Amino acid sequence: MNSAGAANAAASVDLPAGFACHVGNIGIKDGTDDVMVLAADRVAAAAGVFTKSLFSGASVRRSQANIADGRVQAVVVISKNSNVATGAQGERDAANLANRVAELVGCEPGQVLVGSTGLIGVPYPEGKIDTYFDRLIAGPGPALDSNDAVAAATAIMTTDTHPKTASASAGAATVVGIAKGSGMIEPDMATMISVITTDAEIAPDRLDAMLRRVCDVTFNALSVDTDTSTSDMVVMLANGAAGPVDEAELETALGAVSLDLTRQLAFDGEGAETLIVVTANGARDDAQAKRVAKVIVNSPLVKTAVHGRDPNWGRVAMAIGKCSDETDIDPDRVRIRFGDQEVYPTPATAEALAELEAYLASDEVLISVDLGVRSDGTAGSFTVYGCDLTDQYVRINADYTT
After folding, report:
1. CATH assignment of 275-398?
2. Residues 347-372, mean pLDDT to the nearest whole number
3. Catalytically active residues, by annotation
């Protein structure tokens, strides 16, 4: 992982042993890859967290039902169409997609997770998915003939500027994750789409608890624009090919992969030029620290100040002040820093402010806040990840459907 956690994915990242994938173009929107099928060579332990949006898509609901027993063999993701707000046809399309992938892989339809991301309110193009899978299933060789995680990550992109992959080791096992996401990112149990695979052996209930713990401090600590997607899901498959490993090591590896992907997603926010990391400490508990840090990273004024290389700490103070329900926060005990430089309550010198302007031009900017609520070993702390707000973000989203 690089210092900003945001460089383009490596040229080649292999999936763990026992996993293979297929990528291709169905013609959902254009001529770029828009379908990714990833499968294990056996039924795998599986866990997932999904958006809580009231407008969650048919694909999300299908996956939630299919993962309920903790056993999955394949994941399919369609990009450039979310299959959200498409009524009964969308439900049929999600079911049909699971059926076709099951036929391709040789598993049960209930062992297939379905993801879909892109434009809301538009049905899949009629007939194209069936035509594509008919051809794929009838092909002369195995369809899942690749272990290239970068290709898989590329196929699920929408407005992303580069594929996002990360990997780590846990004993004899490997953890590899791919993710997509650039805008409409403010998690609500999950964020964007991420598929994580490992050849470690672990029981589904243990995997589920582990994934949720890690999501809470990585994917659920991410925000680009405060908007929760209708299609969010983070899913993990463990096929056991490498045998059991120390679960603490596995969780550490999963945490490293998830944090790397989180930082890549934040840095690749639509139009973003700067990764913003906000840490709040000295809080009553971790939950309070997270609420305050999120308010700061989500503030349009803080985001634009960073983009403009303006060390305007007053905007950070303003954001903290919006947390009016946190009555134990006393402004006289709060301390604010940009990087290593304290800017409140001790005012920065003119020389220090000039240095901060240069610091804010960095690829990564750290804003830290000591809330002063607690100073002992029970003090809460939390770190969140976001990005600056640029005019390019407005242009990308103003022109999204046209």
Report:
1. 3.10.20.340
2. 95
3. 191
Q: Is residue 382 exposed (0-12), middle (13-18) or buried (19+ Cβ within 10 Å)?
A: buried
Per-residue HEC secondary structure of the chain comes to CCCCCCCCCCCCCECCCCEEEEEECCCCCCCCCCEEEEEEEEEEEEEEEECCCCCCCHHHHHHHHHCCCCEEEEEEEEEEECCCCCHHHHHHHHHHHHHHHHHHHCCCHHHEEEEEEEECCCCCCCCHHHHHHHHHHCCCCCCCCECEHHHHHHHCCCCCCCCEEEEEEECCEEEEEEEECCCCCCCCCCCCEEEEEEEEECCHHHHHHHHHHHHHHCHHHECCCCCCCCCCEEEEEEEEEEEECCHHHHHHHHHHHHHHHHHHHHHCCCCCCCEEEEEEEEECCHHHHHHHHHHHHHCHHHHHHHHCCCCCHHHHHHHHHCCCCCCCCCHHHCEEEECCEEEECCCCCHHHHHHHHHHCCCCEEEEEEECCCCCCCCCEEEEEEEECCCHHHHHHHHCCCC
Which CATH number applies to 19-267: 3.30.457.10, 3.20.20.70, 3.30.830.10, 3.60.70.12? 3.60.70.12
- pLDDT tens digit sequence for 254-285: 999 999 999 999 998 888 899 999 999 999 99
Which sequence spans correspond to the domains of the chain?
19-267, 275-398
pTM: 0.92
pLDDT in tens, 289-314: 999 999 999 999 999 999 999 999 99
Task: Give the position of tokens 């013609």.
Answer: 27
Rounded Cα distance, 181 and 159, in Å: 8
